[in-house]
């Protein structure tokens, strides 16, 4: 799914991209709001990694060399921990909001096509469609009982569209924290590990593109905004099922 990352300025030109340091600062600020212990955790990992290398240097008779070598390793350890906690904080900030699963799925790597909100109802339960090499995967968020109807409707729609050879993955996924659901933090990993339905094989890249073009040719998607929707957001009239 192509993304437009260009922001137009009042004079019609393209706004300059944010610097890497500024981006890191903004991510750190956002993460710290959700994770107040972030500075202490990062410091502990950095100091811990450095102490290990200095201690190893004393054992081998070269503490200065190993201490210098340990500095980039300590920085790397801090960056890895920071990245993981930043991702966790991002998931926590959208947790429980309608459209949160679509936001997470939209970060799937190249080769996956995500169509958010292909089915939804007045209670803001919704189904997202993911197309990849395993086939077509349906991901729901909301009340499991109400989602059953939406899953059934979308499966019937896809079967009518592609016939008996529709590459639907057998398992439907529901994003959430209740038993039997997939947490946001594991959603993409779970989707990428799914296998084709029994008797089906993995799609070739050309087949994925062909199915993607055919799905787009059916008609425009339902007018649902990208990303999490506000809790008091209203569904577009005339498109509610």
UniProtKB/TrEMBL annotation:
One Pfam family from the record: DUF4191
Does this UniProt record's set of keywords contain Transmembrane helix? yes
Ranges where the record places region Disordered: 219-241
Which sequence ranges are marked TM in the entry?
38-58, 64-83
Is the keyword Membrane assigned to this protein?
yes
Recite the UniProt keywords alphabetically.
Membrane, Transmembrane, Transmembrane helix
What is the protein name stated in its UniProt record? DUF4191 domain-containing protein
Species assigned in the record: Catenulispora subtropica
């Amino acid at each position: 799914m192509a993304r437009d990352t260009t922001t137009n300025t009042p004079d019609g030109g393209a706004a300059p991209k944010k610097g890497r340091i500024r981006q890191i600062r903004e991510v750190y600020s956002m993460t710290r709001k959700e994770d107040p212990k972030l500075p202490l955790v990062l410091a502990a990992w950095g100091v811990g990694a450095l102490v290990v290398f200095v201690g190893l240097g004393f054992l081998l008779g070269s503490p200065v060399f190993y201490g210098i070598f340990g500095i980039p390793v300590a920085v790397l350890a801090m960056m890895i921990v920071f990245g993981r906690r930043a991702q966790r904080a991002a998931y926590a900030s959208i947790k429980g909001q309608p459209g949160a699963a679509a936001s997470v799925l939209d970060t799937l790597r190249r080769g996956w096509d995500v169509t958010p909100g292909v089915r939804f109802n007045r209670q803001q339960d919704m189904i997202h469609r993911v197309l990849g090499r395993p086939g077509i995967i349906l991901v729901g968020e909301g009340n499991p009982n109400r989602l059953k109807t939406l899953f059934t409707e979308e499966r019937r729609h896809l079967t009518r569209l592609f016939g008996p050879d529709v590459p639907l993955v057998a398992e439907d996924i529901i994003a959430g924290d209740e038993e039997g659901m997939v947490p946001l933090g594991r959603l993409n990993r779970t989707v990428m590990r799914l296998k084709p339905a029994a008797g089906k094989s993995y799609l070739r890249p050309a087949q994925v593109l062909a199915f993607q073009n055919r799905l787009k040719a059916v008609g425009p998607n339902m007018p649902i905004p990208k990303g999490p929707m506000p809790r008091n957001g209203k569904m577009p009239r005339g498109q509610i099922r």
